[in-house]
Specification:
The complex is a heterodimer.
Chain A: E1 2-7, H1 18-21, H2 31-34, H3 37-56, E2 61-65, H4 77-87, E3 92-96, H5 105-119, E4 123-126, H6 132-138, H7 146-162, E5 167-170, E6 175-179, E7 193-194, H8 201-210, E8 214-216, H9 221-224, H10 226-238, E9 248-256, H11 260-278, H12 283-286, H13 294-304, H14 319-324, E10 328-331, H15 333-347, E11 351-355, H16 363-376, H17 378-381, H18 403-415
Helix pairs in contact in A: 3-16, 4-5, 5-7, 8-10
Chain B: E1 7-12, E2 18-24, E3 28-33, H1 43-49, E4 52-57, H2 74-87, E5 93-98, H3 100-111, E6 116-122, H4 142-149, H5 156-162, H6 167-184, E7 203-208, H7 217-225, E8 229-234, H8 241-244, H9 246-267
Parallel strand pairs in B: 3-4, 3-5, 5-6, 6-7, 7-8
Antiparallel strand pairs in B: 1-2, 2-4
The chains are: A alpha/beta, B alpha/beta.
Chain lengths: 416, 268
């Protein structure tokens, strides 16, 4: 099992009545009213400390993602990744962005190669198609071109990383006489590629066809994610692939304390804050015409009676609902360990993308959560799948089992 | 099929693409280009079909989005309509376009002026005035959409356009809006202004005086760029004047085609 501490880098101090006063957390929450750059500077420093802390405690990976004009994320994850590559040693750098349809693919190829070089081959190259909010609304890409732009960028970057340069590229969206990224990545043939999934059929098929990792990213948790992951595994079976769990990742909110009661006391307010504000996205943003393929819409229609499945409304989520619905795995180390093991097996995932800083959660509490999980949960679940499966090809070749984990693990076997 | 239903025809084009066309009526050909909200057969089209053969092609890609890979610009779309007229053995036609369809109609008339004998633009998009931006119907809350598009959101006209009772209706609606947005997302300005001088057809500009999507100032902007125009403001109508005040709009069109166009022709 590979465990990645994943930072969404949210804006921590949205007003209490945010969802009543503003129509959306994304695209158009007015920046001058809501986003204080001095505070953002403080958040970014905390975020880096939290990522470093996780790296020092033996998480396999540290990572972040990309969102634009959004109060639960920041736009330039490669900056964070570059810093982490320079200041850590063993840990994998899980960079889920840049979003391919809206960035020049040569720039993505170059930036990621530079991070891979700096880190000594520790990069996970995340290639999201991107949400319609980021790609179509914030960056103005025509929705019906989202997928074709993604595919061209995908083909381009893969060629740039694997073909000897220079070569000619005559694409629909990009035409270049000399493609010759300098450098190419250290990892050969290329860093492990992770897509980032919301649930479109084309993404499952692409992952299955090319042996990419499919991490399903949502805030809905392991129970709601079962249907999606099952369809991903069906797709692999149809492609004749093995059932290596390292093909799949899953984003899961995890909070740990000494007891179940303590966990509720410490985290409940931050969880309800997250769902109330972060999922405050109106359907006219999330269901842009032309973003989803006809196949995916027909598929969604057959399942949910609506052609656009991704439609979110502000949700009141209290602790009980969060735990029962599986949105959150939280409680004592033993509770969390059990649930995570169960979830890993049911979903058949080799990678957990752990969401452990929830927007309004203060720095100290985040550090506590990171430490509790590292010390009291991680040692018990990290060897899951070791008996049968290898992460090779799905995990960066330059990443090493973190030293802290090796120490913790040997101490544990001494106890046993 | 009852006597009143339009005929549905699939027309193969020289490009290898095909056009899905509804047609009805007798007389000189009239091409109607529909808005992003979709192709809805209406009493308005029935009225036009009394004096013309009305052809209503579905926007390419509105049934199969993959077709849109063959379209990048309004130039591609204009060639599609040029190919369609050739396939139908029509030399020129009266071209009527509403909203996005109006933008497409004006572009067609600018790209292929010889194909358009008269141009009728209803609440047409295609130009841009910074101080008075065209509203974004795609980011309007569903509960407010009818009020933005129609003066009376509870009218039969509003229902006929916006009511989508079945999942299949809603899928078709998403698809046709997606295909339309393919041409104008996110700001419906593709430099049509630069090409307006090429429009030689006498042009009728029909606007609801309460159009909140493409405000009536845009009718004046079209009038400034096109050589021969006549403007009709429909009192009390919104963005769908031909459905909201059908009889008045039909009278304006009849008068334009019967009197003004021949006058223009005589003066040429």
């Amino acid at each position: 099992m590979k465990l990645t501490f994943f930072h969404m880098q949210g804006y921590r101090d949205l007003p209490e009545d945010f969802s009543e006063r503003y129509p959306s957390v994304w695209v158009n929450p007015p920046n001058d009213e809501l986003c204080d750059p001095v505070r953002v500077g403080q958040y970014l420093r905390w975020n880096l400390k939290e990522l470093h802390y996780a790296a020092s405690l033996g998480y396999d990976g540290v990572g972040t993602n990309e969102h634009h004009q959004n109060a639960y994320g920041f736009p330039m994850p490669s900056l964070t990744a570059y810093h982490l590559a320079a200041t850590t040693e063993d840990v994998a750098i899980v960079l889920l962005g840049q979003t391919l349809p809206m960035n020049h693919p040569l720039r993505v190829a170059e930036e990621m190669a530079q991070i891979d070089a700096l880190s000594g081959g520790r990069l996970v190259a995340g290639w999201p198609v991107g949400t319609t909010m980021d790609v179509n609304h914030c960056y103005g890409v025509i929705p019906t071109q989202t997928r074709s732009r993604f595919m061209e960028a995908h083909d381009f970057i893969k060629a740039a990383w694997t073909r000897p340069g220079p070569f000619i590229w005559n694409g629909k969206y990009h035409k270049l006489r000399n493609v010759n990224p300098w450098p190419k990545p250290i990892q050969k043939p290329h860093p492990p590629i992770w897509l980032a999934g919301g649930g479109s059929m084309e993404t499952w098929e692409l992952a299955a066809k090319n042996n990419y990792v499919y991490p399903f990213l949502s805030f809905n948790g392991h129970l709601a994610g079962q249907a999606i992951m099952q369809q991903f595994w069906d797709c692999n079976e149809a492609a004749g692939n093995d059932a290596n769990p390292y093909r799949a990742g899953f984003a899961q909110i995890v909070v740990v304390a000494e007891t179940d009661q303590d966990a509720e006391k410490l985290y409940a307010s931050h969880i309800s804050n997250l769902y109330r504000k972060t999922l405050h996205i109106p359907p006219y943003f999330s269901g842009s015409p032309g973003y989803s393929s006809k196949r995916s819409m027909v598929n969604a229609m057959n399942k949910f009676q609506e052609p656009t499945a991704f439609s979110t409304v502000p949700t009141m989520v209290d602790w009980k609902e969060a735990i029962e619905s599986g949105k959150v795995i939280g409680g004592s180390p033993e509770t969390v360990r059990q649930r995570m093991e169960e979830a890993a097996k049911t979903l058949r995932v080799g990678h957990f993308v752990l969401l452990m800083q929830l927007q309004s959660m203060p720095h100290d509490l985040t550090l506590y959560n990171i430490r509790m999980f590292a010390e009291k949960v991680m040692p018990h679940i990290r060897h899951l799948w070791d008996d049968k499966w290898s992460a090779a090809g799905y995990w960066p070749s330059g990443a090493r089992t973190p030293k802290a984990a090796a120490v913790a693990s040997s101490a544990l076997s001494g106890v046993a | 099929m009852t006597q009143n239903d339009p005929e549905s025809r699939k027309v193969g084009l020289a490009s290898g693409l095909s056009a899905d066309v509804l047609l009805k009526g007798r007389g000189a050909p009239l091409l109607f280009l529909h808005p992003a909200q979709g192709r809805v057969w209406s009493p308005f089209l029935d009225s036009l079909a009394q004096t013309h053969t009305v052809y209503v092609p579905l926007t390419p890609g509105a049934d199969e989005p993959d077709e849109l890979l063959s379209f990048d610009t309004f130039g591609d779309l204009a060639l599609f309509y040029d190919d369609l007229l050739r396939a139908l053995s029509i030399d020129d036609a009266v071209v009527v376009g509403h909203a996005f369809g109006g933008m497409a109609a004006a572009e067609f008339a600018a790209h292929c002026p010889g194909r358009v004998s008269a141009l009728i633009l209803i609440g047409a998009m295609g130009l841009w005035i910074d101080e008075m931006p065209v509203a974004d119907v795609h980011t309007t809350h569903p509960t407010e959409l009818a009020g933005l598009l129609f003066t009376d959101p509870d009218s039969e006209a509003a229902r006929s356009v916006l009511q989508k009772p079945t999942p299949q209706d809603r899928l078709a609606y998403q698809l046709v809006m997606g295909a339309s947005c393919h041409f104008y997302w996110p700001v419906p300005d593709r430099d049509l202004k630069r090409r307006l001088y090429r429009i030689t057809a006498p042009t009728l500009l029909i606007w609801g005086d309460a159009d909140r999507v493409v405000p009536p100032a845009y009718a004046d902007a079209f009038a400034r760029g096109i050589r021969k125009t006549r403007k009709v403001l429909v009192p009390g109508a919104g963005h769908f004047p031909h459905l909201e005040r059908s009889a008045e709009v039909i009278r304006s069109i009849t008068s334009f085609l019967g009197e003004i166009v021949p006058e223009f022709a005589a003066a040429r």
